[in-house]
Amino acid sequence: MSAAAPSKSGFFDCRDSFAATIEALAEADPRIVTVVSDSVGSSKLGNFRKKFPDRMVNVGIAEQTLVAVGAGLANGGKVPFVSAASCFITGRALEQVKADIAYSNVNVKLIGQSSGVAYGELGPTHHSIEDLAWLRLFNNMKLIVPADPWQTAEAIKAAAAHDGPVFVRVSRMAVPALERPEGAKFEIGKAETLVEGTDATIIANGTMVHRAVAAAKTLAAEGISARVVNMATVNPLDEAVIASAAETGAIVTVEEHSVRGGLGGAVAEVVATTNPVPMRILGFPGFVPTGSAEWLFDHFGLNEAGIADAVRQTIARKK
Amino acid sequence: MTSTAPDLRNDQVAAIADKALWIRRRSFQMVYEAQQGHPGGDFSATDILATLYFGVLRYDPKKPRDPDRDRFVMSKGHCTGAFYSVLAAAGYFPEADLSTYMEPLSMLNGHPNRNYLPGVETNTGPLGHGLPVATGIAIAGQIDNADFRTFVLTGDGELQEGSNWEAALTCAHRKLENLTLIIDRNRLQQGARTEDTASLDPLDDKWRAFGWHVEMVDGHDHAQLLDVLSASPKGRGKPLCVIANTFKGKGVSYMHDNVAWHHGVPNKEQYEQAMRELV
């Protein structure tokens, strides 16, 4: 079933961080429960089930009920983490996410697992490159796309601490731990600048962040100073960081998502209505052909070389 | 089935009948003044709602989020005339607020919003949402071994939504005896009879086959409703489905069992005639 890249040394599957964090949170807070749709293994919640058998609700392959049961559990005083493949928890249950969670404004955490094109060759039915565009319309729902194991753990803790609906998009794609300054903190709605730069800004999230950092290093060798911002929260956006990015005069966004309506669309809304500068949105154009996730990244230029090219071209459009 | 002494119980049934009459009159006034609404379904559900709020549910309108309250989920969220009227009658907000029904910025939206209005458990409107949410509430109670009960009222046409049957599996699988589904079986959906659209019969057999305990009642008989809804669920080991046989537009002659009154609104003569009949 898994089409994830083989894990290599120094690379991590962020689902492990999710699982370890939710187990630790559940130890401390008896209100925390998990809700799954036969998605125990794919959510890496097998250990949670062993530790807290009465605090896992498995509704079977029934995503509408999965999400609605989360809403009901919140009504009953629980803090439910509802976890399933991102393509199904969003697309299959979108009206439940809208009416039962967002519009009802309840304290439910939706965990979209194996998001983006992680399922590779299984194809667009199992890809989730539309989820952020759909969910971004629910203004009160926090949307977090963590980039590495540390940020995944922090995002899950922040989601538990926040009283209200949160969606955390978790990848099964192997990613390295990002280098951060000592004492780095995660806060919902705050972006982090990983590489300083003045000629252009790359705004990325999730699995694309480490690729953006690599591209900035390539560009630096050519004398191009590219800033890298990890915009882990897609809603609410860190508009101050976007305003600062616009001051570099060129912005390239990179995401494991459709180029329509995701991170790039969100950033473009801010840039176009405040300080228009040349922009490029990197992502997938729509349904993608057959290929592994890594092959798809390379095919659509979502890699070090492709991001660096996009930065050069966007800088060239500066007036 | 109920442990209440006979005299008290008769008083209670009479009081429920009074409330039901008030709800019918008040909700129809709301629909008349707003010139919008779903009065046919309001009237088929009225006796169920009156029985729940004045004979069955444990609640304190001053503490609408009390963790120990019984939950009522109005899955047929379009029938807000009756729902808002019963909430006002129960004391959740002043009756005068009912006159703002569907006005700009009113708390009384065409479909209920828990963030506007105390007493609303979840925002409904799209059909097939109430039972799955109520399932989650009942599971929370089951996990905590709490003694609150969860009730959900659906329409019958609404059961054509597949989400109900997903939830039905989970309710039976988890033996949610603390959950009661009431089906307002008026046999009419928006455009036609249910049996001429996507048949539901034999509806009782369907729920039994899904692992539920089923009771059939006259959904306009307060005593029957009171008996079946107030009976203790403890030890039943199954969720309860109450099929309440009703009539759309019950109480007003020209609306009775008439599909045109799903979302019909009365003119002045029709309104006045209804008020003469609803006494």
Descriptive notes:
The complex is a heterodimer of chains A (319) and B (279). Chain A is built from twelve helices and 14 strands. Chain A is an alpha/beta fold and 319 residues long. Chain A has a seven-stranded mixed beta sheet with strand order 3-2-4-5-7-6-12, with helices on both faces. A five-stranded mixed beta sheet of chain A has the order 9-11-10-13-14, sandwiched between helices. In chain A, α8 links the parallel β10 and β11. The radius of gyration of chain A is 19 Å and the shape is globular. The N and C termini of chain A lie far apart (49 Å). Helices cover 40% and strands 10% of the residues of chain B. Chain B is built from eight helices and five strands. In chain B, strands 1-2-3-5-4 form a five-stranded parallel beta sheet, with helices on both faces. In chain B, α1 packs across α3. Chain B is globular, with a radius of gyration of 18 Å. The chains are: A alpha/beta (319), B alpha/beta (279). Chains A and B meet through α3 and α5 of A and α4 and α5 of B. Chain A: InterPro entries: PDH/Transketolase (IPR051157), THDP-binding (IPR029061), Transketo_C/PFOR_II (IPR009014), Transketolase-like_Pyr-bd (IPR005475), Transketolase_C (IPR033248). Chain A: It comes from Devosia sediminis. Chain A: Keywords: Thiamine pyrophosphate. Chain A: Its cofactor is thiamine diphosphate.
